[in-house]
Amino acid sequence: MNYYRKPHRYKKRESVLKSKFFLFSLAGFIVLIGFIYLLCLSPFLQVEEIIVERESVEEAPGIFAVSPEIMADVKVLAENVLSKKFLFWDTKSMFFFDSGSLEKGIAEKYPELESVKVRKKWPDKIKIELARKEGVALLSTEEGFLLLDSLGEIFDTYLPGGDLPVLVKPDYFLESKEAVVSEDDLEKILYIEKSLGSLGIEVDNFLLFSEDKLIIKTAEGWEIYFTLQKDSDWQIAKLNAVLEEVVTAERRGNLEYIEVRFSNRVFPKYKD
Predict the structure, then answer these.
(1) What domains sit in the chain, N to C, each tagged with a CATH number?
(2) Is 148 exposed, middle or buried (0-12, 13-18, 19+ CB in 10 A)?
(3) Residue 92 three-state SS
(4) In this structure, are residues 206 and 165 in contact, taking their beta carbons and an 8 Å threshold?
(5) What whole-number distance in Å separates Cα of residue 248 and Cα of residue 216?
(6) 29-33 long-range Cβ contacts below 8 angstroms, 24+ apart
(7) Is the pTM above the cut of 0.90?
(8) Which distant-in-sequence residues (6+ apart) come within 8 Å of 140 by Cβ?
(9) Per residue in 144-200, pLDDT tens?
């Protein structure tokens, strides 16, 4: 028996190079390469200028402008953070610039700075703004005077000549890196100095003797025993009263100290 066999037709295969998958993949690869080039190597996004500015301040005791040396070094630090290597090419792409890392690095290297702001100015500039801390008090040491900020932390050396209050703390170790005095206690000390000034009492220094005893040495040579653990206004009021009613101007020259820490009584002590 003869059977008729229908001839088999073979479908012609489409070239891989012409397939939609290949063409889409190729297009995607080209777009990806172009995107990477734009981000990493394109001249359009390469940083051309690093601008370092400092806060404009009127110099006064404890307040100084950021030095030109710090500004120049900050610019070098920014250059180091900015410069990267992409495969075989050097790049200063704005896209890969880590502003947060630079801010942290500058703050760690220069504790005398109050604030560091790093901003990207698209498409090709970096702006860095620096502000220096304000000294509110001094710590007297054997090596000299050190500036304290409002948190009671040391941040710089200081040459005497201003009118900042001077603190003395015999048991303080510079290597400890701790605050010399708490923010709250420092605020009280600054208030006390201002209040004593209104009474005509010039302070030479504040001795942080213990937790409950602050020895205030006056420019006249006598001392006041204060405590930061009780109301400062009440102690100042008691001091003012005893100076007006008990310790006459003639007797102040022979005064050793006045104790104002306890109850309602004030104890003036004269030199023997």
Answers:
(1) 43-132 (3.10.20.310), 137-270 (3.40.50.11690)
(2) buried
(3) coil
(4) yes
(5) 20
(6) none
(7) no
(8) 166, 167, 168, 205
(9) 899 999 999 998 887 665 689 999 999 888 888 789 999 999 999 999 999 999 999
